[in-house]
Amino acid sequence: MRSILDAFMRAGLYCLMPRVIALSFLPLMLMVALAWVLGYLYWDAAVSGVRQFLEQFSLLASLWSWMEQLGVPDLKTVVAPLLVILAVTPLVVVVSLFSVSAFMTPGLTRMVAERRFPTLERKRGTSMLQSLLWSLLSLLLALGALLLTLPLWLVPPLALVLPALIWGWLTYRVMAFDVLSDIADGSERQALMARHRLSLLGMGVVSGLMGAAPGVVWASGALFAAAFVLLVPVAIWIYTLVFVFSSLWYAHYLLDGLAQLRQPKLPMSSDVSEATVLREEAVESALPQRLTFDPSDDQGHRPGHTG
């Protein structure tokens, strides 16, 4: 726990560095450009399609009429954008995670290694293709879990817990692998990920809970349509900063664990001999001091010697 908290504090301080803030704008610009293009092409069509679905859904007809009687005549105009945003949010999260992992994690890991572990050897145990395949496999597993648990999201407590667990697991898999891919070999990576699996998963879950913060910005953008264009970049930048922090958190924690894993160990024969010497010294110190005799005094006090 001490190592996790230490890495947490160090990651927070590194996020304030001008170099890290400058690096965060690269995935931000890509994400904002992609969001604007997709929004320009598909936003109106998506909102109108969801609104038509809500109007034609017979089970909700009584709800709309009841809301109209309460003085809320056109609630569908608010619900439709919210549903579109809710459907798009997982895509934004995944793209933010992978963009930070691809464009920032290698540079952030090198920065942490240079500043804290300058003597740590870079073994480059994983190729870019292996990292890409690992990330895609992890994404497919996460999406499968997302689809399987989607009906459980209707239960209020599970709606908060399950997404955090799924995104936390995906963050742990992608970030931990990418941090170690450039500086550890295959056996070291497997050993660290197996030894610290629960800690890494817990860090991912905390990152997933932190990633829920932009949801407030998304909802505000739907309620205040005039500011939606400005709030989209803000929400995306929050996602980016969350994953930048996660990348630094994993880098500090895993590189510290890798440095400890590579510490040289004394051979078994040296350990045994050293323990034997220490044990013998302890036994000798516990025994009473032996008497010493002067040879001349010994001759002068032999039995039968009359002097």
Please characterize this protein's 3D structure.
Helix content is 79%, strand content 0%. Helix 6 runs antiparallel to helix 7 and helix 9 runs antiparallel to helix 11. The chain is mainly α and 307 residues long. The chain is built from 13 helices and no strands. The relative contact order is 0.12. The chain has one domain (2-261).
Lay out the secondary structure.
Elements lengths: L1 H13 L3 H39 L4 H9 L6 H28 L1 H12 L11 H21 L7 H26 L4 H10 L1 H14 L3 H10 L4 H34 L6 H19 L8 H6 L7
Helix pairs in contact: 1-11, 2-4, 2-11, 4-7, 4-10, 4-11, 5-11, 6-7, 7-9, 7-11, 9-11, 10-11
Q: Could you tell me how far the N terminus lies from the C terminus, measured between alpha carbons in angstroms?
A: 80 Å
Tell me roughly what share of residues is in helical segments.
over 70%
Number of helices: 13
Please tell me how large the radius of gyration is. Answer: 32 Å
Number of domains: 1
Q: Strand fraction band?
A: under 5%
User: Which regions have little confidence, pLDDT < 50, spanning 5+ residues?
Assistant: 268-278, 286-307
Structural class: mainly alpha
Shape: elongated
Residue-averaged pLDDT, rounded? 76
Question: What order do the SSEs take from the amino end to the carboxyl end, as H and E?
Answer: HHHHHHHHHHHHH
Largest sheet: none
